[in-house]
Amino acid sequence: MMKGDPMSETIEDVSALIVNKLLANPKVPRDINGSSKIVEDLAFDSLAVMNFVMEIEDEMDVSVPLDRLADIRTVDDLATCIVSLKNGG
Amino acid sequence: MSIFDKFRTVEQRLALLTAGGGRNPFDVMIERPVSSTVGIIEGRDTLLFGTNNYLGLSQSQRAIDAAIDAVRARGVGTTGSRIANGTQSVHRQLEQRIASFFGQKHCMVFSTGYQANLGMISTLAGKDDYLILDADSHASIYDASRLGHAQVIRFKHNDPDDLHKRLRRLEGAPGAKLVVVEGIYSMTGNVAPLKEMAAIKRETGATLLVDEAHSFGVLGPTGRGVAEAEAVEADVDFIVGTFSKSLGTVGGYCVSNHDEIDLVRLQCRPYMFTASLPPEVIAATMAALDDMLAQPELRTQLSQNAAQFHAGLKGLGLNVSQQVSPVVAVTLETVEEAIALWNRLLDLGLYVNLSLPPATPDHRPLLRCSVMASHTSAQIARAVEIFAEAGASLS
């Protein structure tokens, strides 16, 4: 997979990357997956969500506008949003 | 299901704070001020190190006299907004004074500093625009991002490279880009690297707004803030600030050389739909500005006092802000530790601010202290001593 090629990253790839990133934090439960809810299952407050998204933004070289976060519940939702932004949406 | 169900979480958190007989940190009452630096709290003389009254001007005799004269001449209130109910001559005078102080063509005065940020940012950044915020921005800036309709992007706190990266990602995107930073960050006392930010603004063609709420009257050769200190005022499109810190009154302002300011007045809801500043506040503000201009030594004293207090706390081994500014934040590891220390400081006669996550930048609690020009060296030494005594009694 070539980094920077918008068509090369699937939602599954991005979702897996997010899960890995989350698991690097020892406070996050070990049994998370793409359908884990970011606020409820991971006990993130609003600031923690924004800061975590910032880390993913760097990894993916994309900026996620804050208003998009309002619609994001699960890890897969975040992955879908990032892939859509990378494809210009 | 009650409308108050959602408040149960905050109720539980508050109960944890006050468990074991601790005070409610959000309900401290200063029974009366003795001076700018001492207030009566719980019946005792208490050193005030948490009031943001950087130059001590809340007790300025010149401002007090001006407020009394204004009340006698004009009454106590304006009873409405300038757009709907009329501007008074004193509003114009204040705007001219502030614009002239900053060497800018225009000034728009707001009823509070919060409304100045809320109004300017939400109005300037429209639906198709991008609002690019420092991650540690004040609540007024985040609230502005919710009142407006721009797409909001955060960059890492005080990190010009990260700002540059995020602006680069927006290359080619239609819509204006408004970058918002603060001069001195209110929680930590960190100072913005404004020279680097200004260079990025020039390179990318973004618009730059700087909130100098905590740096006005504090930094720069004449007290105009970080933009003046860094000699980048020409690159700043909008400077926002407040009268409620260095000038000791209340109210906010935005100064700019852009002639469109008068059009902003007609679109800016937090300016249009609220009562304007009352005459006595305006008179006191102008008098406090006179005081500030007449006594540049206040700034030198403030800077010396900040250095003494910062060095004193650092000498105790406390984890203090890296940069020396009148905001000196002590970072603690746990909320329990912060609550115990804050209560003990107040028992011993020292008032500072307890700041708890998520209102703090990195999930750790802060004891946020603010230094004044009017603190004496002995008061600062005593405050440091109280920190030492409180720390020792808890360990």
TrEMBL record, chain A:
Q: Where is the Carrier domain?
A: 9-86
Gene3D superfamilies, alphabetized: ACP-like
So which domain of life are we looking at? Bacteria
Q: Name one Pfam family in it.
A: PP-binding
- The protein depicted here goes by the name Carrier domain-containing protein
Task: List the lineage, top down.
Answer: Bacteria, Pseudomonadati, Pseudomonadota, Alphaproteobacteria, Acetobacterales
From TrEMBL, chain B:
**What GO molecular functions are on record for this protein?**
pyridoxal phosphate binding; transferase activity
Q: Where is the Aminotransferase class I/classII large domain?
A: 45-385
Q: Which InterPro entries match?
A: Aminotrans_II_pyridoxalP_BS, Aminotransferase_I/II_large, AON_synthase_class-II, PyrdxlP-dep_Trfase, PyrdxlP-dep_Trfase_major, PyrdxlP-dep_Trfase_small
This protein's record includes keyword Cytoplasm: no
Recorded hits in Pfam families, A to Z, give: Aminotran_1_2
Write down the NCBIfam families for this protein, in alphabetical order.
SerpalmtaseBetaP
Spell out the family assignment given in the record's similarity comment: Belongs to the class-II pyridoxal-phosphate-dependent aminotransferase family.
This protein's name:
8-amino-7-oxononanoate synthase
- Per the UniProt entry, what species is this protein from, by scientific name? Acetobacter nitrogenifigens DSM 23921 = NBRC 105050
